[in-house]
């Protein structure tokens, strides 16, 4: 991508932001210095006619982004999950960004399918409908598999979208570098990292093989979850541009009247959405990161079904454990313990004062707990928590921001079904179960077993490693202090003992059932 083309995109973006009145707000959010704000205005005002006008009924930033097209809309949607970058107000505005776009033609859809699957549409599907939904990256058709007669949803990627996104992402990197150069204060927001995060997320959404894999993994993790389902992936009719899944008949979550008419228990469904989300995040470390109404359905058997696996959140086992303890501490109002967990995990630098930190935690939690139960929001508690931890020197972690933002959406969906939903009551059993399963004696035994398994994998290599170490130790006469037993021997003996203890604990626990 040439510098000229990037400059043109930069000019187009700048003038559109100026013309729609979004420039001020964006500069404010990025805390751009006054000189840059004035320079931007002076340079862009006379040429603002070069920019796009957008829809004047929308708030300024949303108006500018919508006018600039699909990649900007996606970028805005992803930025709405980063209040650390945009500030709360702008992040709220960006949340309303919708990407309803006109569908592309049937001929183009057929050509994409034929190219990706290597066979014409008629050979794969016996029926193939007009598009039923169209967004920035893809559109969805209803179809029937020729070989099995099964009804399916076929998501087809917009032709040329990968290239268009690539061009825009290159321009975003360019803009990020310009911002970093001219607004040193904005460096704190790491603009290039923000674009890299966007780049990575979009790659996950654009290559449908990755989305198929995410759907399959999510489906396997949740196979035993009663009342929850993920549509099966038809791998034979899927590729990087086409994703075919089992068709889900039922009611969209947005259609509250129909859900009521079907006699769905709204309180229970609100509970199910939130409990499933929390349990997937804590138990599996893989959660649906885009749980809005349009991506949830209630199938004919009354199961909650999730659709669209382009944005999934992942949290590693250690972080999950730490956050379960943090939530548990909040649930029991043990702020000192919540503070200690942060220090133990190294999230807050050791030179900070644990009591002061506990006091700050109490100051954010008590006003929330003091509210009427139906207004308690775990998402708000987490948002305040991240603010406080940031003040105490904790690094921002994007996977936790996605968790928090998804919690906001899941709580919103829950409250649209049951306005009196008590989030805390729903969360309690999930967190307690996690703590029981993962922090008790059984969990310690499981961890030790894992450690022994890792050592066992090196089993056949261990004698050789020991021999090599001994030869090396003998090659140069060791200084006096090296006559001690080497560290690795202590380590192996320690692990051996631990393994022995483990076997005894294991046997005892198994005997106890
Ligand atoms: N397996 C399915 N069964 C029935 N309907 C489906 C299925 N998959 C998708 N749909 C319908 O198509 C719509 C769009 O699907 P999906 O969300 O996967 O596409 P998208 O292009 O990623 O859209 P967006 O990201 O804007 O939600 C869904 O809201 C749903 O109505």
Model description:
This protein has four domains: about 5-100 and about 160-195, no CATH class; about 105-160 and about 205-245, Phosphorylase Kinase, domain 1 (2-Layer Sandwich), CATH 3.30.200.20; about 250-440, no CATH class; about 440-510. It is built from 23 helices and ten strands. Helices cover about 60% and strands about 10% of the residues. A hairpin with a 5-residue loop joins strand 2 (about 140-145) and strand 3 (about 150-155). The protein is globular. Helix 10 (about 160-180) packs antiparallel against helix 11 (about 190-205). Bound molecules: adenosine-5'-triphosphate. Adenosine-5'-triphosphate (ATP) binds near residues 99, 231, 245, 294 and 307. This is Ubiquinone biosynthesis protein. Keywords: ATP-binding, Cell inner membrane, Cell membrane, Kinase, Membrane, Nucleotide-binding, Transferase, Transmembrane, Transmembrane helix, Ubiquinone, Ubiquinone biosynthesis.
Distance between the termini: 64 Å
Q: What's the overall average pLDDT, rounded?
A: 85
Proportion of residues in extended strands: 5-15%
Bound molecules: adenosine-5'-triphosphate
What general outline do the C-alpha atoms trace? globular
Low-confidence stretches: none
Secondary-structure content class: alpha+beta
Rg estimate, integer Å: 27 Å
Instruction: Quickly count the helices.
Output: 23
**What does the largest sheet look like?**
4 strands, antiparallel
**Total tally of structural domains:** 4
Q: What level of helicity do the residues show?
A: 55-70%
Number of strands: 10
Across the major sheet, the strand order is 1-2-3-5
């Amino acid at each position: 991508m040439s510098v000229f083309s990037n400059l043109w995109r930069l000019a187009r973006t700048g003038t559109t932001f100026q013309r729609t009145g979004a420039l001020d707000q964006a500069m404010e959010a990025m805390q751009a210095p006054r000189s840059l704000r004035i320079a931007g205005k002076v340079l862009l005002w006379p040429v603002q006619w070069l920019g796009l006008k957008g829809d004047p009924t929308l708030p300024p930033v949303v108006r500018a982004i919508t006018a600039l097209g699909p990649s900007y809309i996606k970028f805005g949607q992803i930025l709405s999950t980063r209040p650390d970058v945009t500030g709360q107000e702008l992040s709220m505005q960006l949340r309303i960004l919708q990407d309803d776009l006109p569908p592309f033609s049937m001929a183009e859809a057929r050509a994409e399918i034929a190219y990706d699957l290597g066979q014409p549409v008629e050979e794969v599907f016996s029926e193939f409908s007009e598009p039923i939904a169209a967004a920035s990256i893809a559109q969805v058709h209803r179809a029937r598999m020729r070989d099995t007669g099964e009804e399916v949803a076929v998501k087809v990627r917009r032709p040329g979208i990968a290239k268009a996104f690539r061009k825009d992402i290159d321009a975003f990197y360019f803009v990020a570098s310009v911002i970093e150069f001219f607004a040193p204060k904005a460096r704190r927001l790491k603009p290039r990292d923000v674009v890299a995060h966007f780049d990575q997320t979009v790659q996950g959404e654009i290559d449908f093989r990755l989305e198929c894999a995410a759907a399959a993994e999510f489906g396997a993790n949740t196979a035993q979850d009663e009342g929850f389902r993920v549509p099966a992936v038809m791998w034979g009719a899927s590729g990087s541009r086409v994703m075919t899944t089992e068709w889900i008949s039922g009611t969209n979550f947005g259609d509250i009247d129909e859900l009521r008419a079907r006699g769905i228990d709204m309180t229970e469904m609100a509970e199910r959405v939130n409990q499933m989300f929390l349990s997937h995040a804590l138990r599996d470390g893989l959660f649906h990161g885009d749980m809005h109404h349009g991506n949830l359905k209630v199938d004919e058997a009354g199961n909650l079904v999730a659709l669209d696996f382009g944005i999934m959140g992942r949290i590693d086992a250690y972080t999950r454990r730490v956050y379960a303890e943090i939530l548990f501490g909040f649930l029991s109002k043990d702020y000192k313990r919540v503070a200690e967990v942060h220090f133990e995990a190294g999230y807050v630098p050791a030179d900070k004062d644990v009591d002061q930190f506990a006091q700050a935690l109490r100051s954010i939690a008590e006003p929330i707990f003091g509210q009427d139960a139906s207004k308690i929001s775990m998402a708000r508690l987490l948002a305040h928590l991240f603010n406080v931890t940031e003040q105490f020197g904790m690094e921002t972690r994007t996977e936790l921001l996605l968790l928090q933002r998804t919690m906001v959406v899941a709580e919103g969906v829950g409250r649209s079904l049951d306005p009196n939903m008590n989030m805390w009551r729903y969360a309690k059993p999930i967190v307690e179960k996690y703590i029981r399963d993962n922090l008790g004696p059984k969990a310690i035994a499981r961890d030790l077993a894992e450690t022994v398994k890792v050592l066992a994998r090196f089993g056949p290599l261990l004698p050789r490693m020991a021999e090599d170490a001994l030869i090396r130790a003998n090659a140069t006469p060791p200084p006096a202090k090296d006559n001690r037993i080497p560290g690795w021997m202590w380590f192996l003996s320690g692990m051996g003992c631990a393994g022995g203890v483990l076997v005894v604990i294991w046997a005892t626990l198994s005997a106890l059932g």
